[in-house]
C-alpha cells in the first residue's frame, strides 16, 4: 500500500467519514398513502417534531478491510492507529468508525430477514451467542437478536 500514512485526528475523521459516505445513501422514510380509489402516493414520514425521518441505507456492508483500503493502510497499521497507548489522539475517529459499523450490524439484525452471514461473523469474530442457532431453526427471534447486540465487542478480529 505504499509508505505509511500519518493521520491527524481531523484527517482520520474525514477519511472515515469519506469511506462511510462512499458506501451508503441517506433517504427519506416514506409511507404509502391512499389518495383516491385505487390510487396511492408515497409520502415522507414525519417525526414528532415535524421533520422528515431520514434512513441510512448501506449499499455495501462496512468492513474493516474496506476501511483500510479507503484509508490506504494495512490491517496492521489500522490496529496501530486503534492502539490507545500509541495514538490516544485518534481514538475519537477510531470509535466513530467502529460505532458506524456497529450501527450497521444492529440495523441489519433488527430489520433484515436473512442475517445468517452476520450471525456467523458475530459468533466467530466478535463473541456472538454462546450457542449457535441450528441451520433449520428458522429466523432468530427479536430477543435472540438483542442478545447478539448486547455481547461485548472485540473489533480487532474483523
Instruction: Report the major sheet.
Output: 2 strands, antiparallel
* Residue share in β-strands: 5-15%
Structure summary, number of beta strands: 4
Helix coverage percent of residues? 40-55%
Order of helices and strands: HEEEEHHHHH
- Report the structural category: alpha+beta
Q: Please name the CATH topology of the largest domain.
A: Topoisomerase I, Chain A, domain 4
Oligomeric nature of the chains:
single chain
Which architecture of the largest domain would the CATH scheme give at its second level? Orthogonal Bundle
Q: What is the average per-residue confidence, as pLDDT, rounded to a whole number?
A: 82
Q: Any low-confidence stretches, pLDDT <50, length ≥5?
A: 128-136
Q: Spatial order of the strands in the main sheet?
A: 1-4
Query: Which CATH top level class of the largest domain fits?
Result: Mainly Alpha
Amino acid at each position: 500500500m505504499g509508505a505509511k500514512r500519518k493521520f491527524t485526528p481531523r484527517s482520520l475523521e474525514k477519511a472515515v467519514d469519506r469511506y462511510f459516505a462512499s458506501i451508503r445513501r441517506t433517504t427519506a422514510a416514506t409511507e404509502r398513502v391512499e389518495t383516491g380509489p385505487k390510487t396511492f402516493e408515497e409520502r415522507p414520514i414525519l417525526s414528532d417534531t415535524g421533520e422528515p425521518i431520514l434512513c441510512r441505507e448501506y449499499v455495501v456492508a462496512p468492513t474493516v478491510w474496506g476501511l483500510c483500503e479507503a484509508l490506504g493502510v494495512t490491517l496492521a497499521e489500522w490496529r496501530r492507529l486503534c492502539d490507545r497507548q500509541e495514538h490516544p489522539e485518534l481514538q475519537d475517529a477510531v470509535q466513530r468508525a467502529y460505532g458506524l459499523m456497529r450501527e450497521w450490524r444492529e440495523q441489519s439484525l433488527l430489520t433484515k430477514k436473512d442475517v445468517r452471514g452476520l450471525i456467523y461473523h458475530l459468533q466467530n469474530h466478535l463473541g456472538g451467542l454462546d450457542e449457535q442457532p441450528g441451520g433449520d431453526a428458522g429466523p432468530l427471534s427479536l430477543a435472540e437478536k438483542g442478545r447478539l447486540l448486547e455481547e461485548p465487542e472485540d473489533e480487532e478480529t474483523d
